[in-house]
Design goal:
By secondary structure, the chain is of the alpha/beta class. Helix content is 41%, strand content 17%. It contains 19 helices and 20 strands. The strands form 3 sheets. Strands 10, 11, 12, 13, 14, 15, 16, 17, 18, 19 and 20 form an 11-stranded mixed β-sheet that branches. A 7-stranded parallel β-sheet has the order 3-4-2-5-6-1-9. It has a two-stranded antiparallel sheet with strand order 7-8. Helix 1 packs across helix 2.
Length: 582
């Protein structure tokens, strides 16, 4: 396997560590801390860093044993295999009630749930030896109150604790064991990382791949429990319940939306495999029935059977390993490949699940960003749901764990209440009254836009699946540098716009009128493109720019603004750009 370059090679491919791993190692052994939190983007090489620290501490006789705590059973095996390559024998079959393990091992791998079952047994083992505890994806210590309490009780005596995470921390207010919190500028306690290596830095270092988000909208029809038939466009401003039902309709394997998107993703995978012959694809499904149905569709589309991985099957880990070492095209999974699982050849993904939390989204996208050689790109297909599009546009944002809001006066009371209300409205589940009241009637997919590096790219009007306009973006080569991806997206968008303008420049009576919704979509896309350009020019977040435009020009959010209001904001943003240039 060829690394990006030797001084930033992946574990096991060259003698040198990546630059960030070396820097983190230097900081660790300079500070010599008892607790250390390393936040590094998925695919950056947290496992390599942690095992390098463990090997050094063992070599210096500062620790005698290593305990690795991972989220899942499969990750225990993955850690044990990586540790073996680093010369650290780890027992992944250890259970809390087992007591002793073979003297051939210098460490064990357990799950967070396993520690919570019998934390006292783990504490006794930790007290017997000078132990380094590696807490992989440490935010899982907050999944349940008993998990956090168990982790704290079991590993309080450990002389060294190394916590790792690569995804946004949880949004709850439960403190995570062995993580330091400090008040931020607003007085609210936030987690403090000892070393941070974000996606933007990793992308600049060619450690991870750039991600193209291919968003698809379309018309959905479904029937409610009351017998009402509802039609809505995916991505339109809708209530929480209607948005959830529109998304479920899109993901229904009996409709036309998901087969069209899977076919588009397969075409994209074929394009990538022209340059990366072993590139693979992953579909993340909501449930087992959907996963099996998607696998059947993929076999019809690609002509090859897809690997189906279900979390409650005994052979799940073996199937992941077999897929990793093969050149098969597609794998379909429910939860097994959401976090930490290392399948470096994954290059194309389909986000076909109703789970829409920032944590799960970041975990899922993290499966595709691991770079093996320079120029590789990742493509993730997703529904045009506002929440998911927001997560995609904020890939480079670094997040800390926030422990709630400090209330100092009456204004803070109402602010806290508004925040709780916003969190409730943003919940991924529909209301209890509407659970089970949905029946999909039909769906149709349309290519919406590409999100890349904070910007949006697309063509005006509706773009049909299978059209030349869609292939402008599906046909992007699989090996490009990040700046080349942006240039190519801009070129293809502008060239198609010139062609559309030329075809519409005939006699006045032959020019077709643009419908209102198409006109508004064009204006919103133009505004979003200008806001993205302003972000890259000034560093100002998209939301802040939109809020400033609304404050100066008036009117509601862009999603429900009128054409005149959108025109006013576009003109105002152009004025800002002209003033800054002059």
């Amino acid at each position: 396997m060829t690394p990006a370059w030797p001084e930033r090679a992946a574990w096991g491919t060259a003698p040198s560590l990546r630059a960030w791993q070396s820097a983190a190692m230097r900081q660790y052994f300079t500070d010599n801390p008892r607790d250390f939190l390393a936040v590094a983007t998925p695919g950056a090489g947290k496992t390599t860093f942690a095992l390098s620290v463990a090997a050094e501490l063992l070599g210096r006789r500062q620790v005698d044993r290593v305990t690795i705590v991972a989220p899942t059973e499969h990750l225990k095996l993955q850690w044990a295999e990586a540790a073996a390559r680093a010369g650290i024998p780890i027992d992944p079959t250890y259970a809390a009630g087992k007591g002793k393990t073979s003297t051939d091992y210098v460490g064990i791998a357990v799950t967070y749930a396993g520690v919570a079952v019998n934390p006292l047994a783990m504490r006794i083992r930790t007290e017997r030896f000078k132990t380094l505890v590696i807490l992989d994806e440490v935010h899982h210590a907050g999944d349940a109150l008993s998990w956090g309490e168990g982790i704290r009780e079991a590993f309080e005596p450990a002389p060294r604790r190394l916590a790792l995470t690569g995804t946004p921390f949880r949004s709850d207010i439960n403190p995570i064991p062995f993580v330091t919190y400090a008040p931020g500028p607003d007085g609210i306690p936030r987690s403090v990382a000892d070393f941070t290596y974000g996606y933007a830095h990793a992308l600049a270092d060619h450690v991870v791949r750039p991600v193209l988000f291919m968003a698809y909208s379309g018309e959905m029809q479904w029937r409610t429990r009351a017998g009402d038939e509802i039609a809505a466009r995916l991505g339109e401003p809708l209530t929480k319940d209607l948005t959830a039902q529109a998304l479920r309709t899109a993901l229904d394997p009996g409709g036309s939306w998901i087969p069209s998107v899977l076919a588009a993703a397969d075409r994209r995978l074929s394009e990538v495999r022209r340059h990366v012959p072993d590139a693979g694809g992953l579909v993340i499904a909501s449930d087992q029935d959907s996963a099996r149905a998607y696998a059947k569709l993929l076999k019809q589309i690609s002509g090859e059977p897809a690997t189906v991985v279900l979390s409650d099957e005994k052979l799940a880990s073996k199937r992941i390993s077999e897929f990793t070492d093969s050149d098969r095209r597609w794998m379909v999974a429910v939860r097994m490949v959401s976090e930490g699982v290392d399948v470096p050849r994954l290059a194309v993904g389909v986000y076909a699940t109703t789970t829409s939390t920032p944590l799960f989204f970041a975990q899922a996208v993290g499966r595709f960003v691991r770079a093996r050689s320079r120029g590789e790109t990742a493509s993730v297909f997703l529904p045009s749901v506002p929440g998911l599009l927001g997560f995609a546009s904020e890939m480079e944002v670094e997040r800390d764990h926030v422990l709630g809001r400090r209330i100092a006066d009456e204004d803070d009371i109402f602010a806290a209440e508004d925040e709780l209300l916003a969190q409730a409205n943003a919940g991924e589940a529909a209301s209890d009254e509407l659970e089970g009241s949905w029946e999909a009637l039909g769906s149709e997919a349309r290519f919406d836009r590409v999100l890349y590096d904070g910007g949006e790219f697309g063509h005006s009007g509706e773009v049909h699946v299978g059209s030349e306009e869609e292939m402008d973006f599906l046909g992007i080569p699989g090996l490009l540098e990040p700046h080349q991806v942006r240039e190519l997206l801009q070129t293809r968008q502008s060239e198609r716009a010139r062609k559309q303008k030329a075809s519409a420049s005939g006699p006045a009576d032959t020019v077709a009128e643009v419908s209102t919704h198409e006109h508004l979509a064009i204006l919103r896309r133009e505004l979003n493109g200008l806001v993205a350009a302003w972000h890259h020019r000034t560093g100002q977040a998209h939301g802040i720019t939109h809020a400033a435009l609304r404050k100066e020009c008036g009117g509601p959010a862009a999603a429900v603004a009128t054409a005149d209001q959108l025109h006013a904001r576009i003109d105002r943003l152009r004025e800002w750009a002209a003033r800054k240039t002059s």
